[in-house]
């Protein structure tokens, strides 16, 4: 628990492992016991058939909200399901207090189908600046972490995104068309060009992890929800990558971004994808 004179950096030195423990416990208690065992009454639609929520999402978020707020008194929690219930809670991301940004089950569709491509995402931010992140894929037993200025790690090993292999098409995960406006669809179609190999994305958190590991080259996403992006953006940054909107500016978790945006293994790739999204060459 943070003391009144303790900084966020000092808190992370002392308690990053406690955050990890809380995330692992939430998954072990509320998520994994329901994986491949969901009953029909435990799955609901939110905005439509592609926007699902389960009891695992709700209960894991409640678990993390209580645990994280207790670890850092004075902090607030912005979770996907809480914002769905009360959209005004999202405003805390733009406030001065430390904020935990939580996606309890990122990749709910994959979770419902019994696939392993889902994860729990937690990020800590203040004043719009990302300070730390945790990406936990419990079905694969992978935990990726990042702290601003201290690098990105996967199960304790340092991550380096590297650069794309010369001469190979860029591997780019893109938003599902159902979640894009006509203008965004047009921008994403610009990626269908020589030297780029776009494909539909899976779990956003795992797509960011693939970039940080050098297994994928970039993403091109058309939505701003911070719980999907905050943890991964810091992970990619600390692995040596970069992110840009189609206006050529870094993505802001506080919103107001020119969409779609990209995150990539290196700055040159981010600039190339951003230029394509803006309609350039």
Describe this entry's structure for a reader.
The protein is an alpha+beta fold and 281 residues long. It is built from eight helices and 14 strands. The protein has helices spanning 8-31, 55-71, 80-85, 108-112, 182-189, 204-212, 226-238, 267-277; strands at residues 43-48, 51-54, 76-79, 99-106, 119-126, 129-137, 142-147, 151-154, 157-158, 170-174, 196-200, 218-221, 242-245, 261-264. The strands form three sheets. The protein has a seven-stranded mixed sheet with strand order 3-4-5-6-7-8-9, with helices on both faces. A five-stranded mixed sheet has the order 11-10-12-14-13, with helices on both faces. It has a two-stranded antiparallel ribbon with strand order 1-2. The longest helix is centred in the first third of the chain and has 24 residues, at 8-31. It is globular and about 50 Å long.
């Amino acid at each position: 628990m943070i003391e009144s004179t303790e900084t966020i950096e000092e808190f992370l030195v002392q308690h990053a492992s406690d955050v990890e423990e809380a995330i692992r416990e939430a998954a072990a208690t509320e998520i994994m016991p329901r994986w491949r065992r969901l009953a029909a009454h435990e799955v609901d639609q939110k905005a439509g058939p592609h926007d699902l929520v389960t009891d695992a999402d709700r209960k894991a978020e409640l678990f993390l909200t209580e645990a994280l707020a207790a670890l850092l008194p004075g902090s607030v929690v912005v979770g996907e399901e809480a914002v769905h219930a009360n959209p005004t809670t999202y405003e805390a991301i733009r406030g001065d207090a430390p904020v935990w940004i939580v996606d309890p089950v990122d990749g709910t569709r994959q979770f419902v189908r019994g696939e392993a491509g889902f994860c729990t995402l937690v990020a800590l931010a203040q004043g719009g600046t990302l300070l730390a992140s945790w990406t936990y894929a419990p079905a694969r037993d992978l935990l990726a972490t990042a702290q601003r200025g201290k690098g990105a790690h996967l199960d304790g090993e340092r991550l380096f995104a590297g650069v794309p292999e010369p001469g190979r098409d860029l591997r780019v995960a893109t938003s599902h068309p159902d979640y894009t406006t006509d203008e965004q669809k047009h921008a994403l179609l610009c990626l269908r060009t020589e030297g780029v190999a776009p494909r539909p994305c899976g779990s956003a958190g795992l797509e960011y992890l693939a970039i940080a590991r050098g297994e994928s080259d970039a993403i091109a996403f058309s939505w701003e929800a911070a719980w999907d992006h905050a943890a991964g953006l810091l992970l990619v940054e600390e692995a040596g990558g970069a992110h840009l909107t189609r206006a050529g500016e870094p993505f802001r978790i506080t919103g107001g971004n020119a969409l779609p945006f990209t995150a990539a293994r290196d700055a040159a790739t981010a600039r190339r994808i951003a230029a394509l999204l803006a309609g350039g060459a």
